[in-house]
Structures are given as C-alpha cells and as structure tokens.
What does this fold into?
Amino acid sequence: MPQPLKAEEVNSQTDPSVAKQWDDETPKQQQIEEFYKIVDGMKIGLLTTIRGGVGPVSRSMAVAKRVGPDFLFLANIHSNKFTDLASSKTAQLTFQNSSSQDWVSITGIVETTSNSDPRIKDLFSKPTAAWFGDLGDGVHNATAEDPRVALIELKPRYVSYWKATVGTLGFFKEVGLAAVKGEVADTGVQRQLLQEDIQDMRKAAETPS
It folds into this structure.
C-alpha cells in the first residue's frame, strides 16, 4: 500500500519519496542474484562515455557476455567510443524494462583490448558480422580475425537498480491511489551495490563452482 507522508519525516534525509525507496533489509546475496536476473533479461543497454568538449554520449550496445559483475562488448575499434575511452575510462551502462519498470544503472571503469584478445573468438557470432561487413580486402572480413573487432570490458564500481514489486495493473493502481491520497506510491525497491559488494561478486565469479 502507499506509504503516508508524515510531517516529521520530511527533510533531506528522510523524505519518504527518496529515503524509503532504498532497500537495506533484503539480504545482500539476494540483491545480487536479483540484479543478475534483471540484467540477464535485458541484453541491450545504453553505454555512455565522456567526450571531450561535449560531455556524456550514449549509444545502444548488445552485451556479448556478463562475467560476474563485469560486462563484455564487441565493437569496431574505429568507432568514436574508443576515442572517448582513450581520454576517459569512466563509463556508464544503463538498462530499462519499459514493461516491468525495472531499471539498472552501472558506473565503472572500462578496459579495451585489440583483436589479439583471445576472448573475441569465443564471443564472436554470425550476427556480429552484420555490424562490420566484409570489405573484400581479405583482412577486414567481418570475422573474429578482423582487426576492427575489439573488446570493451566494463568493470563496475557502483551499481544502483530498481526492482518492481507490482505488475502493470498494480503499478497504475498504486500510482493512482497515491496521487489521490497524497501519498508515496510503493511500486518497487531501489538498491545499491557498493565497491566491496562488487569485489565479492567478482571473486565469486572467479571461483570454480
């Protein structure tokens, strides 16, 4: 049910429209598992880099693979994103599910590697070739050996995400009731994963099962 606003709660620290959204009660392991479930269900996100003299620049990117908390992408080394990353390694990856209202925001540091990275052969697929094209010179041939194919790896430092706790009908009902009653709609939980959480996630991914 919507949460009533109380006069004594309204300040910069406890305003329920902000403070009560953060979920500090769910066990951290459950938060991690539900984070993975959300991002694995949304294979395409927006990768945002910082461009000198412009600011944040975003583009749609398909995730080639997730390894624990880290995300791998295949991209054309001649694209502007690599120029951006040469001057600033900080990047943001966002996902949003317009049906469930789930969203994820990941901020981290990017590492890029050339076509010599052996992981490229494992990640490259036939559909990937459609984004490069065979130039007919015997070198730039839209295969895993094409020197244009490079790897982008985003290593998160901070994650925040929203997990909906009501369906579509429940969402509109909750928002409608809250608007009428002057209350705060309770449609989901917002969570954050800090550096120490992410380090633990990375260690868990590296440990053989």
Summary: The two ends are 41 Å apart (CA to CA). The chain has six helices and eight strands. Helices lie at 28-40, 80-87, 119-123, 126-129, 168-181, 195-206. The CA atoms of residues 100 and 167 lie 7 Å apart.
